[in-house]
Write a structure and sequence with these properties.
Elements lengths: L1 E4 L2 H4 L16 E6 L6 H8 L3 H7 L14 E5 L28 E3 L6 H8 L36 E3 L2 E3 L1 E9 L5 H8 L3 H7 L16 E10 L3 E5 L1
Antiparallel strand pairs: 1-9, 2-3, 4-5, 6-9, 7-8
Amino acid sequence: MKLLLLPLSSVGLVAARSTTTPPPGLTYLGTYTIQANDTLASISVSVGRGVCALARANRMADVELMPRVGMEMLVPANDSIVNDTSCLLKEPTSTLPCIYGGPHVYTVVAGDTLAKVAKKLNLDVSALGNSTGPPPPGASSSSSPSVSVDTPLQVGRGLKIPQCSPSACQVQPYRFVYGTYVDLAASFNTTVGQILAFNPTYSFSAATDVDKAPVITLPNNCRPLSTNITVIS
């Protein structure tokens, strides 16, 4: 464990509030069936809708985390900002050595590297090291070799996340009506990685009925509880 002195004024995850509610009159042209090698960018070109319009209409956790082949995505009828990139995960302007609140384990998803996980959690990549938790069911339990920050990680593997102590998040059920995890993170003072960690099996939803929109577990208002922070590895 490491003891750090962090001023409260500089460590809060403060971000501009993003839209997490559907635009007025949101309707759908229909659906698109996922093909092999599809990306959200390629689908955007095929259907003539912006990447973020597609991501938000389908409540995507991560624009790089694509649905399986054969699954269907909604195609929104209205898209006033075709080149909108506000749903894409940006490089953080500053990083932390630990996360506020929790959880302590992040489950690796397709395409993850240590660098990408650190970005999702607003962490310095050195905070993650090469320490991994339990392997996914059926996988070898032997120790993982050291990997570079850009080496793809084993999907389903648990990655230990350093936590700041004392710190806290509120955790509550949330009906995910519209948007992406980037929008939720900005609106609720958390990180994309923390939302992913609390919802390891969720990727998207094409429900057109708001009452049938998915309910996820949302960590929010994540914050330090002291200026004296201990990093729990």
